[in-house]
Amino acid sequence: MTETVVDEGTGGQDNRPGYGQGREALMAAAIKVVARGGLRKLTYRSVAAEAGVTHGLVVHHFGSRDALLEHALGWAVRRSIETSSLVPTSGRLEDFAATLAAFIAADPDLQAFQYELKLEASRRPELRHYVDLLYDTYRDAVREALACFDVSQQMTEIVFAALDGLVFHQITSGAPERTEERADALRRLLAAHRAQTSPRAPGGTLNEPKLSCTHFRSGDDELFQGA
Fold it and tell me: What's residue 150's pLDDT?
């Protein structure tokens, strides 16, 4: 059955994104729809209305609702890693997750979207694949960043769980100052752990990465290359 295109009052044809930005605009719209109404609200029509385009453009770019969901998830995860300093571009331990609180506060929908997917996956087993991809990507990013400071695998898993909890707490409580305090405490814990487990290189400091780790990937994980 062919849907009738209707104007749902959120922008219309005049606000249609350009060809180059259309795909990203639709993924951003999908994230907002899910963050505010849950995964069940994710339809071609709701995404089109949020983006101010026709639903046919959504179909053209993604072909299916599942493809839209997977691409939106990949985009959300990459953006989260790149803009939260989860993998610090400076290569310094003191900058690990330094902008996490500000990043969450600036775009809470980005994280709420991911938590909505996690919750829905607990009720719908067919969605667990997406959650596994999400967690694998974040875990790999944390592991890659902390391996450069000789942080043990066991401690890396603890840090990963702590970060997940910090994000969820800020999304539900809206208290970025608490996130900043706890992220700072986490960095101090990491520095103390490194001081106990890693010998200091001659002329170096515990805050410096190994020479082989001065350049990180910026979250462009192979799991989501198609997004």
Answer: 82
